[in-house]
UniProtKB/TrEMBL annotation:
<dbReference type="InterPro" id="IPR012347">
    <property type="entry name" value="Ferritin-like"/>
</dbReference>
<dbReference type="InterPro" id="IPR005183">
    <property type="entry name" value="DUF305_CopM-like"/>
</dbReference>
<keyword id="KW-0812">Transmembrane</keyword>
<dbReference type="Pfam" id="PF03713">
    <property type="entry name" value="DUF305"/>
</dbReference>
<feature type="domain" description="DUF305">
    <location>
        <begin position="58"/>
        <end position="213"/>
    </location>
</feature>
<protein>
    <submittedName>
        <fullName>DUF305 domain-containing protein</fullName>
    </submittedName>
</protein>
<keyword id="KW-0472">Membrane</keyword>
<feature type="transmembrane region" description="Helical">
    <location>
        <begin position="24"/>
        <end position="46"/>
    </location>
</feature>
<keyword id="KW-1133">Transmembrane helix</keyword>
Length: 221
């Protein structure tokens, strides 16, 4: 054991025997670094450890609503390209750009949660009794069929305006059922605000689409 004779009595008592001043300083630095590293790792891992799981309502909603939105983006851009009425074309463009942005947000959630963007689970499996919400052929609520999309892609002018309004009206009504399902199931502070924004926007567009169909002399599907 080495005792530093230069130390006063109090310092000899408080300093561990055999430790020099330099060793104590080095030990203190290492301890501080360890604490900082632990805090950093806790900050990095805490969001992952508390994130929604792969079979959660939040993850299911993000995946299914992203798929749902992508169809709306496609239909909106078809109307913008092939429609005639300036108001309907503008709504189509607004829906496409808004929902494409929201797809990016939801994909960001899944990435942050370290979850895959796709799943083998059936659509709406994240909702209790979700199978009953599906259309007879297994499509999610409001999704247009392949034949519907083919008709829209082949239409132009006023015919495209009418069909777009009809299909998007049905699409939004189905989307609101999905939004309500996640709002009933989740208290996530990222999911709920976006879902509420979606609901408000789509409800407003539903009313606008109904009015436009009246102006165009057509009925909902």
């Amino acid at each position: 054991m080495v005792v530093d004779d230069d130390l006063d009595v109090d310092e000899r008592v408080t300093r561990p025997l055999g430790w020099s001043r330099r060793a104590l300083v080095a030990f203190g630095v290492l301890g501080a670094v360890a604490l900082l590293a632990a805090g950093f790792l806790a900050g990095q891992w805490a969001p992952i450890l508390t994130a929604p799981g792969d079979d959660s309502a939040e993850a299911g909603f993000a995946r299914d609503m992203s798929t749902h939105h992508r169809q709306a983006v496609h239909m909106g851009m078809v109307e913008y390209d092939r429609g005639q009425d300036s108001t309907v074309r503008r709504i189509g463009y607004d829906i496409a750009t808004t929902q494409q942005y929201q797809v990016g947000v939801m994909e960001g959630w899944l990435e942050d949660w370290r979850l895959p963007s796709t799943t083998d689970r059936a659509p709406m499996a994240w909702v209790p009794g979700g199978r009953q919400m599906l259309q007879p052929d297994g499509r999610m609520p409001g999704l247009a069929s392949r034949d519907d999309l083919a008709r829209l892609e082949a239409a132009s002018g006023k015919d495209a305006d009418i069909l777009f309004c009809q299909l998007m009206l049905r699409h939004h009504l189905g989307g609101i059922h999905m939004i309500d399902a996640v709002l009933d199931a989740s208290d996530d502070d990222r999911v709920r605000p976006l879902a509420e924004q979606m609901r408000q926007a789509q409800q407003g567009e539903i009313e606008a689409l109904r009015e436009l169909l009246k102006v165009l002399g057509a009925e909902p599907l």
